[in-house]
Amino acid sequence: MTSDLTLAESGPAAGRPVLVLHGGGGPATVTPIDEHFATSAHTLLPTHPGWNGTPRPADFSTVADLAAAYLRLLRERDLSDVLVIGSSLGGWIAAELATADTEGLISGIVLLNSVGIEVDGEPLQDFFALDARGVAEYAFHDSERFYVDPATVPAERRDVIQANMAALRVFSGGPAMSDPTLRPRLAAVTAPTLVLWGESDRIATPAYGKEYAASFADARFEVVAEAGHLPHLEQPARTFALLDDFAAETGRRQEAGS
């Protein structure tokens, strides 16, 4: 499957590998993260199969399938000291990937407003039930800034968005967007983890995020003020400062050279 992946790579080949995993909105939603790290790291930004017109094999339909494909990618490239950053669905993939990394290839995990676990009393918002106005209001702190009137979107772009949502529904399993088996398995993850959350997120609340962090053996929880489900888009400076600090703390090459 790895030979069929759509993968963009940037930055110096000798830099620390940074795997950036997008959410339901597609790779454009995490491009700023990719560009930020590509100044010094070697970034890998895959487009998940089924997004943006990429092919998806019929038997490739779960988050575990995606995680397995990206773990094979790391192995085939002989990559280590990998920093994995996942947003929303991408965070779920990152968490699943971390549980499968028995070789210690990953040295740091960042979950940005991730979905994927079940938390009593904190259900995830049914994203598929929201219209464009609802998405803006639930996902962003400044909804007016990020609201896009569907009438202004070109037909070709609307088709891509609809196809991406169809792929999201397949991999997430529908409105629940969770795997009841994931949370118990996170306790075995040994890689340091940063769970970073926009405080105004109403898709997955900060209380949900705090429980996500508590599921790991070695995780800390950070809240980004005046941001929602995509803090790196609403508050890039605050978000990147936290990401940079975590990257510096976890990089094994930096430790070896210090």
What would you say this structure looks like, in words?
The chain is of the alpha/beta class and 258 residues long. The protein has helices at residues 31-37, 63-76, 89-100, 132-139, 143-146, 155-172, 182-186, 206-214, 231-234, 236-250, 252-257; strands spanning 6-10, 17-21, 42-47, 82-87, 106-112, 193-198, 219-224. A seven-stranded mixed sheet has the order 1-3-2-4-5-6-7, with helices on both faces. The protein is globular, with a radius of gyration of 17 Å. Mean pLDDT is 95; it is low at 254-258.
Features:
258 residues, alpha/beta, seven-stranded mixed beta sheet, 7 strands, globular
Write the SSE topology.
Elements: E1 6-10, E2 17-21, H1 31-37, E3 42-47, H2 63-76, E4 82-87, H3 89-100, E5 106-112, H4 132-139, H5 143-146, H6 155-172, H7 182-186, E6 193-198, H8 206-214, E7 219-224, H9 231-234, H10 236-250, H11 252-257
Parallel strand pairs: 2-3, 2-4, 4-5, 5-6, 6-7
Antiparallel strand pairs: 1-3
Helix pairs in contact: 2-3
Query: Judging from the principal axes of the Cα atoms, what is the shape?
Result: globular
How much beta, percentage-wise?
Answer: 15-25%
Strand ordering within the main sheet: 1-3-2-4-5-6-7
Count of discrete alpha- or pi-helical segments spanning 4 or more residues: 11
* Average pLDDT taken over every residue: 95
Please give the share of residues in helix.
25-40%
Largest sheet: 7 strands, mixed
Structural class: alpha/beta
Low-confidence stretches: 254-258
Instruction: Give me the count of strands.
Output: 7
Run of helices and strands = EEHEHEHEHHHHEHEHHH
How many angstroms separate the termini? Answer: 38 Å
